[in-house]
Amino acid sequence: MVESKILVVDDDINICELIEVYLMKEGYKVYKANDGESALKIFKEKQVDLILLDIMMPKMDGYSVLKEIRRESQIPVIMLTAKGETFDKVLGLELGADDYMVKPFEPKELVARIRAVLRRYKPLSQKRVIEYTDLVIDPDSYIVMYKGNKIEMPPKEFDLLYFLASNPNKVYTRDQLLYEVWGYDYPGDSRTVDVHVKRVREKLMENEEWQIKTVWGVGYKFEVK
Amino acid sequence: MVESKILVVDDDINICELIEVYLMKEGYKVYKANDGESALKIFKEKQVDLILLDIMMPKMDGYSVLKEIRRESQIPVIMLTAKGETFDKVLGLELGADDYMVKPFEPKELVARIRAVLRRYKPLSQKRVIEYTDLVIDPDSYIVMYKGNKIEMPPKEFDLLYFLASNPNKVYTRDQLLYEVWGYDYPGDSRTVDVHVKRVREKLMENEEWQIKTVWGVGYKFEVK
DNA sequence: AAAATTTTTAATAATGTGTGAATTTAATTT
DNA sequence: AAATTAAATTCACACATTATTAAAAATTTT
What we know:
Structural class of chain A: alpha/beta
Low-confidence stretches of chain A: none
Largest sheet of chain A: 5 strands, parallel
Mean pLDDT of chain A: 85
Strand order of the largest sheet of chain A: 2-1-3-4-5
CATH class of the largest domain in chain A: Alpha Beta
Largest interface: A-B, 23 and 27 residues
Oligomer: homodimer
Shape of chain A: elongated
CATH architecture of the largest domain in chain A: 3-Layer(aba) Sandwich
CATH superfamily of the largest domain in chain A: Response regulator
Number of strands of chain A: 12
Order of helices and strands of chain A: EHEHEHEHEHEEEEHEHHEE
Helix content of chain A: 25-40%
Radius of gyration of chain A: 21 Å
Strand content of chain A: 15-25%
């Protein structure tokens, strides 16, 4: 599963780094920003999955940042507030924060909240069953049925097939596939795609109605007759 | 999973709406009532699964509403009471309240308690015996019958099995299982799930028709042939 | 306090993934 | 049409990740 990317926004550099250490330990990718403006910049540039947003910041406060973000995205946001600060719950809620935490907090609790929020948010990209003749790809059960038989498939192969099959007849370059299936900043070689295509192909054999076709000099597509 | 329906009863409209926002975010369906009488009306009309009940209300107070509800239903009720108000715990308990919260409260604490209460007293409508070949899982008696024999199972293992078996063929990540079976804010490690799966498996041995299957790189599912 | 259950830890086992090099295929040039 | 070049395929193995398990530690229940 592709790790989630989290943007941490706090004017206190130490807090940022502390949080970073914990989140990295949990396998998250972390971006940091120390003020509202650079937060928005990173938010626009990177495809982050969740934002931890401190409220009290010089120049642009957390509420303003949140308001700005909400103009274009429903990305999950957890507000951070120092004990004693008056945190206007209602305001945060109305602006669309998903949760909030009072500093200082237990790292474990932070991680739990992040997981809960991400879990809640993810189903939004409702995955659906894809069907063609002799082929059913069901992301709920993670099963591929080919000519009535269950085909076991490791996650990467499944994701690749699922992605291609959900966009039939559209060609993707290897780089596009790496981006879509492997993740936004996957550093690896594009040969990797070839190998996975091969593995999917040998599990799905030749077929009349559809196949993963090579578009020479360009990439691959899931072609349907 | 079918979302639970919650009735929020408070004479303060703002509080009602605040709670509504939070609960909707958690995926609950929310009904609101601002006095005892309309609360009872909704309670009778809709099949709600849990009631949040403010005590101090004009006309008919929370105790009276609870008393009325208890004449015909064991539905879980969480009492709400403002700080400073004299709240008679004993009375609330005697009348059969399941829990109570003092306002102002942390929304996430409210959610945690709701989940806890619902897990304990799953509404009768949703609580059902699950049956497969050679397997009966009865949530009323907390008993698992496997090939005609009673299988003793500690609560966590039972809950895990029950959850998986009530959603056959659907894969859940470890995090999802922690969220669904362990609870909203469980901070623990996801290896915990593995261990429980192992224990359930060794009690239920190999079986042709169904099994708890590992979906490599993803999670677990209760697979049925 | 003892027993039962749950959680954590850590070592081991199982499985999946990515890479370079060799090979094959396709397009282009001569 | 043969030779050349570029791209795609394939292989196999090292490496990485994930799952399983046993056992110890912590917690809860009795």
